[in-house]
Amino acid sequence: MGETLERHEFGAEVGRLLDLVVHALYTEREIFLRELVANAADAVDRRRFEALTDPALGMPAETALRIVPDKPARTLRIADPGIGMSKAELAEHLGTIARSGTLAFTRALAERPAAERPSLIGQFGVGFYSAFMVAERVEVTSRRAGSEEAWTWASEGKGDYTLAPATRAEPGTDVVLHLKPEAEEFLEPFRLQAIIRKWADHITIPILVTHDGKDEPANEGTALWRKPKAEVSEASYTEFYRHLGHVFDTPWAVLHWRAEGALDFAALLFIPGMKPFQAVEGERESRVRLHVRRMFITDQAALLPPWLRFVHGVVDTEDLPLNVSREMLQATPVLARIRRAVTGRVLSELKTRAKDAADYAKFWENFGPILKEGVWEDAEHRQDVAALLRFRSSAVEGWTSLADYVARMKPGQEQIYVLVGEDPAALAKSPQLEGFRARGVEVLLLTDQIDAFWPERLDAFEGKPIRSITQGTVDLSKLGEGGAGEAGGEAADLTALLPRLQEALKDAVSAVRATDRLVDSAAVLAAPEHGPDLQLQRLMRRAGREMGAGLPVLEVNPRHPLLRRLAGPEAEAELGEVAGLLFDLARIQDGEPPRDPAGFAQRVATALALGTG
């Protein structure tokens, strides 16, 4: 056997991660057992599912996970009859880890208090490596279901691992931990049983702990979602939520119900209390688990739409056959009805919780940008989702809804006004708002990337059209006078000036026009009437995609001293230079750099010199 022993180096990131796990996550050592048991249970679930379509992988009569402490040898063995791993899978799953996951893990570790660090393990897919918190050596012997070949992976967590041929009577995996002297508490059966009850009591696969040569049950093994709500404690919900999502926070909402009649299913869903460290933005599929008669089938049944992908949980139905395939799942009308029912129940819960503004703000700050996707892509639920949206505003503190905005609209106001950008603080100071503020007209400030898209699909709320104030001409004349502001003075006659400005800027703008929505600023940019607004254009340019939107419109303030001076005959000679400066100032105010930064700086320096000479 020694001749066929293969030695492999861990990647640099794995070595670094092992050091982090061993030294920085030492405060909650018992977490290792939860992670190894969860891995074993997942392996059994995978074998059950694959056996539905491949009888050669059939499950044995005994499906329990066994935990066997051996005090004289100071070893702890976790054995499962699951799908097992081939030699290649052992190397892939236990010898490498994604670089991005490791780096994210490292950053998150540095940012979190020590007491919260154990929650990071499962979230970054590094649960197996938590074994090195208590073990000086780990050996994994595994035989893939459907194969006669077994292999042993072994490592001391110090930079390398070995692979060697082995034997195992049945498919499955044995994880053997050679415990450190200071970790001998994990050889006590009572301690092991207590950890299982704490972390894995609701795993439906039986978990046995060997005590004095006898296997004793360690978990209740009851499907929590099948119990009546009155029989489930808040602590039990939280434990199951943490087990299910490999997280350590407390759920913001728990949805537990049983549907009977035309549909027969039980559901237990959780809305998390915090963002995951691996953002759900990168993974757009719902991962709610589908069970049939308590048996796990798949977590890829898309039981919720992508814009509710932050919801975790289980849906268990009697109305599907156990041997349902993934292809059948996409076509069966039963699952389509379950999806509609589950989606409706989540929306109902959010509507109820939204009545408590402070409580709902916690949810919104975590998952609001994802929920907004529902307005863009789901016509059936668009209006329901729109009612759940929250925004910053130019007129009120905190979060506000579209319904609250409509209730505060001024007499004569016919549209919901929005300003889309990236930084709430910058938007609040934007010159685009001057005329609205002067007339007491509220504008919603939208700062998520999805905000550049969804208003086009919603179009209106409670009969009020939604209008970006950077798109086309905004007529504020019906909403009162705006006042002169710091610019002061009467409005200049720009009839002759506007064509000359447009000629000077013909390569940069599609039009130059006077506007009444500026108070203190000289100029501002707007998008053409029928094109995308300015923020959407910026996003598309950054993505390397031009939208054919055409050149922007330059709107100028006829009350501003600069425009009044340019309207005079004495300004003819400097018009070209000042026109370029005016356009660049409008770009800067809108968050864009000047076209020629060096030339812009020179023009500003010249203007300052003339002004102080």
Short description:
With 613 residues, this protein is α+β, with helices and mostly antiparallel strands.
CATH architectural group of the largest domain: 3-Layer(aba) Sandwich
The CATH topology of the largest domain comes to Rossmann fold
**Major β-sheet, in short?**
9 strands, mixed
Q: What distance separates the N and C termini? A: 91 Å
Structural class, from secondary structure content? Answer: alpha+beta
Number of structurally distinct domains: 3
Uncertain segments are 98-103, 115-125
Main location: cytoplasm
Region (C): 539-613
GO molecular function: ATP binding; ATP hydrolysis activity; ATP-dependent protein folding chaperone; unfolded protein binding
Subunit structure: Homodimer.
Describe the structure.
The protein is α+β, with helices and mostly antiparallel strands and 613 residues long. The protein has 3 domains: 2-217, Heat Shock Protein 90, CATH 3.30.565.10; 224-367, Ribosomal Protein S5, domain 2, CATH 3.30.230.80; 391-612, Rossmann fold (3-Layer(aba) Sandwich), CATH 3.40.50. Helix content is 35%, strand content 18%. It has 20 helices and 22 strands. The strands form 4 sheets. The protein has a 9-stranded mixed beta sheet with strand order 1-6-5-4-7-3-2-8-9, with helices on one face. Helix 1 (12-24) runs parallel beside helix 4 (99-111) and helix 10 (357-377) packs antiparallel against helix 11. The radius of gyration is 32 Å and the shape is elongated. The N and C termini lie far apart (91 Å). The relative contact order is 0.06. The model is unreliable at 98-103 and 115-125 (pLDDT under 50).
